[in-house]
Specification:
By secondary structure, the chain is mainly beta. The protein has 3 helices and 50 strands. Strands 27, 28, 29, 30, 31, 32, 33 and 34 form an 8-stranded mixed beta sheet that branches. It is flat. The chain starts with a helix and ends with a strand. The N terminus is likely disordered.
Length: 667
């Protein structure tokens, strides 16, 4: 409820607005004599912090009493700006006033398309009815909050260094007319509400990142994407990239960002004494780059001969090393090197900003001699990938040791490229699966042929043929045998894993019987499988495998050995209790190699009180001899409940162990 003071203030505001023309009447006002009461309301946005919305058309209707046409337009006014010329209520943003005579009234907000951006941006609403009897000073017609008529876009704006840009302005234009701005978002916000009809969106950068982009990454209204999102629909857009031309500068105790890196050779060795130049982008088409700093590698950190660093103003940079411009002597051994070249590539900027704290880039210099290339193959004509190519000076040092200058590796098709630094060089090619070779087919530095490496035409015929290494097992003794070590069982082998070539074939198998330290060749048994015979009892078995690859030496290796070969055995137990704490157990043993075997059985017995774990800790043990495969034994001192009896046949040279069990309820 409004206080009397507030009501008087609003009435005064309304009176002043009429005098000043703030409540603009555009259609058929009531008779001036009847305008004795201020009808008012306020229009706000529907979100929690919603402010009053100015410049919305409010159409005031009066009840006619005629059922056929119950309402007649009385007048049209507009909601007030926040900073009005009304001296009594300058901040009544979103308020509207109308002077009316007695009667029943209601009002509509933003009802008709009046050609304004507000109609496109906000929903249409209808106020509650208000009765004016002529005795009030003012009457409120409650106005529902208005909602955004279209959906919402989130549009992140970043610069070429992927850092956020503050201060960009978003505008939506009606899709059918490039000149009609429907909605606008103030700077420093990444959100834009769309109008109720299809629209296209333009982003304008601030002074630090000037430029205009239409979504999505279009250059004009004609090529821009059309958005048609209903109320409440939210859409996340990809980053919009604007080119920043003015970077944040250090303030207070801050220092400029640091540009640093290392100058190295192709082998990774740091190189001292190389001039490094840093150029900052000016965004001036007539003079796009400014030399910002020149540093000699190794001069800033004596312990790091190739290191350089310099404080530079924030911005985009390109870097050169060993640049031949006549101002600094060029190190003749090395070629010039450049990052970003002479033409700026916006897709890979080098950014040294206050946010990143600087930039770090290394320079890997190539040798200045001519390009020397070739192809490496093996003796079978196969291309060798990953071979190491070493470049040596053709003249040894005083100690007669070859001087390594650089190295490289062959690519996926066996090719390589190197650069010489002296007049004459020699090449050595190595690969872990082949025998090394020197240039010209030499087997050593002394027998290698020298190659001209002075600046000039490329040398492209320096091919090499590596000798084949023999096949070897990849892991020893990883030729395994599958199958049980029992008479009558068929065992086999997988042939093992071999290197360095693939695929290999197994050209030969040979089985052997091993007893003690003696291996006996089993003539005629040359397949990948072998059926164990009685003659193998008490021995182990192994197989010799021969691996083959065209052009390479065959590989020969033995498999692992099997366990000792034996016959199978089985045991059957049965029993009953014939007196207190006593049980008689019958034992029957069978083996595959003996019809009536003699031997021993170990018994483990006791009460299953709390499962097998408890049984194993408290069980009693007994050894029983059997003859002709049979035995009977009386067990005493058993518990009065179910007892568990487990029997195991003792293995011999004739058979393998086996086990069985039974249960007996003891009286």
């Amino acid at each position: 409820m409004l206080s009397n003071t507030r009501r008087r203030l609003i009435a005064a505001c309304a009176s002043v607005m009429l005098v000043l023309g703030l409540g603009a009447v555009t259609t058929s006002p009531s008779d001036a004599a009847d305008q004795q009461v201020s009808l008012y309301g306020v229009v706000k946005a529907d979100y929690p912090w919603g402010e009053g919305i100015p410049d919305l058309a409010v159409r005031v209707y009066k009840a006619t009493g005629n059922p056929a046409s119950p309402w007649a337009l009385d007048q049209t006014v507009y909601t007030q700006e926040e900073h009005s010329t009304n001296p009594l209520c300058p901040t009544c943003k979103g308020y509207w006033y109308a002077k009316v005579g007695p009667g029943t009234y209601r009002a509509t907000v933003n009802e008709l398309d009046d050609g304004t951006a507000n109609w496109q941006q906000w929903s249409s609403e209808t106020t509650t009815s208000a009765v004016v009897d002529g005795t009030q000073e003012q009457v409120e017609s409650a106005t529902p909050p208005v909602r955004h008529a279209g959906g919402e876009l989130n549009i992140p704006v970043v610069d070429q260094c992927k850092e956020p840009i503050q201060g960009a302005t978003f505008e939506s234009y009606l899709a059918n007319s490039a000149g009609d701005v429907a909605t606008t978002t103030a700077a420093n916000s990444s959100y834009l509400w769309l109008p109720r009809t299809p629209a296209r969106v333009k982003i304008t950068g601030p002074a630090a990142a000037p430029g205009t982009v239409w979504l999505t990454n279009a250059s004009s209204f004609a090529t821009a994407k059309t958005f048609a999102l209903g109320p409440g629909v939210y859409s996340e857009q990809p980053n919009v990239v604007l080119t920043r031309t003015t970077f944040n500068q250090p303030s207070g105790t801050q220092q400029n960002p640091k540009f640093r890196g290392t100058v190295v050779s192709p082998t990774g060795t740091q190189i001292a004494g190389v001039p490094v130049r840093l150029y900052r982008k000016t965004y001036d088409p007539d003079s796009p780059w400014k030399l910002e700093a020149t540093i000699i590698s190794g001069s800033t950190s004596p312990g790091l001969p190739g290191y350089y660093e310099a404080l530079v103003p924030p911005g985009e940079y390109r870097m050169t090393a060993n640049e031949a411009d006549g101002t600094v002597p060029v190190v003749s051994t090395w070629r010039s090197y450049s990052i970003q070249g002479t033409e700026f590539d916006p897709s890979v900027p080098i950014c040294a900003t206050m946010t990143t704290g600087g930039a770090s880039y290394d320079a890997r210099l190539d040798y200045s001699g001519r390009t020397i290339s070739g192809t490496v193959k093996d003796t079978g004509g196969h291309l060798v990938k990953g071979a190491t190519v070493e470049v040596y000076s053709a003249t040894a040092d005083d100690g007669a040791d070859p001087q390594l200058q650089t190295t490289t590796t062959t690519n996926s098709i066996g090719g390589y490229t190197v650069h010489g630094t002296t007049d004459q060089i020699k090449l050595r090619v190595t690969e872990s699966h082949h025998t090394p070779i020197w240039s010209g087919g030499g087997t050593s530095f002394d027998t290698a042929s020298p190659i001209d490496a002075t600046p000039g035409a490329d040398s492209t015929t320096n091919d090499a043929a590596l000798g084949e290494f023999p096949l070897t097992l990849d892991r020893i003794p990883y030729i395994t045998i599958h199958g049980g070590a029992k008479v009558g069982t068929t065992i086999g082998t997988d042939g093992g894993e071999w290197r360095p070539y693939s695929p290999i074939t197994i050209s030969h198998y040979q089985w052997y019987r091993v007893k003690g330290s003696t291996s006996t060749k089993l003539t005629g048994y040359t397949s990948s499988h072998y059926k164990i015979r009685k003659n193998d009892l008490g021995s182990t078995l192994k197989v010799q495998v021969t691996a083959h690859y065209p052009g390479a030496q065959d590989g020969v290796a033995f498999s692992e050995e099997t366990q000792k070969i034996g016959n199978t055995s089985s045991i059957k137990l049965s029993g009953h209790s014939y007196s207190k704490h006593t049980a008689k157990i019958k034992i029957t043993v069978k083996t595959s190699g003996t019809s009536k075997p003699d031997g021993k059985v170990t018994l483990k017995y006791g009460v299953l009180y709390n499962g097998l774990a408890w049984f194993n800790r408290h069980a009693k043990h007994k050894t029983v001899k059997f003859k002709d495969g049979k035995a009977t034994v009386t067990l005493k001192g058993l518990g009065v409940r179910e007892n568990y009896i487990e029997g195991s046949v003792v293995a011999t040279s004739k058979w393998l162990s086996s086990s069985g069990h039974t249960y007996v309820n003891v009286k």
